[in-house]
């Protein structure tokens, strides 16, 4: 979850400082993630890994998430963007759990409701909370992509291999969308380093770990734990990016974390 939160901070830091544009960030991120995962996949082998059959649904979901994520952060703070993202991710994954017949305990429903109330309280329109329409739509599309990608990941038997090939096959999709735009954007050394860090470490390695953990979780539990990401992003955004955390955000974070704890209680 810390890796997921770091992606929000790295993306927002690059865009907020004008060090890189959203198209360039998304493209460098997916390429560096693909390279890092390919190196890990090939290391220790006598022969290069054989090309896996493309899972275009998974690769498309990953590309959708990466693109919507980068362009949404043009106008959203790191914490607010993460809140919107993972609130909709939770709805997507709960819906997926119901569709596949995955039972959801009553306590988990209660935890989800409490956490969502915390998020609703935080983003409820006020003079202090600005909710730009288009970035919110882009982040919602990104969330559906990530929720779909996570649901597919629960079936993964080889997490590193699956993540590596998903990044490789997502690269041309992202490139087709971003290349016409990236030529006209600013690209500094610091911006490129932020995108590479996001792609190679917090995305490539972080998502491989996520695919490793997902099969051990139910879809609803996997959805619920991700609501801790906005809280981590809010705190880190205040610490590293100078974003202001007010009492409203502290109260909302307490509701979110309390809901997660409640929802993960196992009744024997």
UniProtKB/TrEMBL annotation:
InterPro entries: AA-Vitamin_Transporters (IPR050638), EamA_dom (IPR000620), EmrE-like (IPR037185). Its main location: membrane. It comes from the Bacteria. This is DMT family transporter. Residues 136-262 form the EamA domain. The chain crosses the membrane at residues 20-44, 56-76, 82-100, 107-124, 130-152, 164-183, 189-211, 223-244, 250-266. Keywords: Membrane, Transmembrane, Transmembrane helix. The lineage of its organism: Bacteria, Pseudomonadati, Pseudomonadota, Alphaproteobacteria, Rhodobacterales. Pfam families: EamA.
């Amino acid at each position: 979850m810390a890796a997921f939160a770091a992606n929000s901070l790295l993306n927002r830091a690059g865009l907020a400082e004008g060090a890189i544009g959203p198209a360039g960030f998304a493209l460098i991120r997916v390429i560096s993630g693909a390279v890092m995962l390919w190196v890990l996949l090939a290391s220790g082998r006598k022969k290069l890994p054989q090309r896996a059959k493309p899972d275009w649904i998974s690769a498309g979901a990953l590309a959708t998430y990466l693109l919507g994520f980068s362009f949404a952060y043009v106008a959203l703070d790191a914490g607010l963007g993460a809140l919107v993202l993972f609130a909709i991710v939770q709805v997507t994954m709960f819906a997926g759990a119901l569709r596949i017949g995955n039972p959801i305990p009553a306590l988990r429903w209660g935890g989800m409701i409490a956490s969502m109330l915390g998020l609703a309280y935080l983003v409820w329109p006020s003079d202090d909370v600005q909710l730009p329409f288009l970035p919110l739509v882009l982040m919602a599309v990104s969330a559906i992509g990530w929720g779909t990608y996570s649901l597919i990941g629960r079936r993964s038997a080889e997490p590193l291999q699956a993540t590596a090939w998903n990044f490789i096959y997502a690269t041309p999709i992202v490139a087709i969308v971003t290349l016409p735009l990236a030529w006209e954007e600013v690209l500094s050394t610091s911006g490129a380093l932020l995108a590479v860090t996001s792609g190679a470490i917090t995305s490539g390695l972080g998502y491989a770990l996520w695919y490793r953990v997902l099969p051990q979780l139910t879809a609803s539990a996997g959805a619920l734990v991700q609501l801790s990401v906005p809280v981590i992003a809010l705190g880190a955004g205040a610490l590293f990016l100078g974003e202001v955390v007010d009492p409203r955000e502290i109260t909302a974070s307490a509701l979110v974390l309390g809901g997660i704890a409640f929802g993960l209680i196992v009744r024997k």
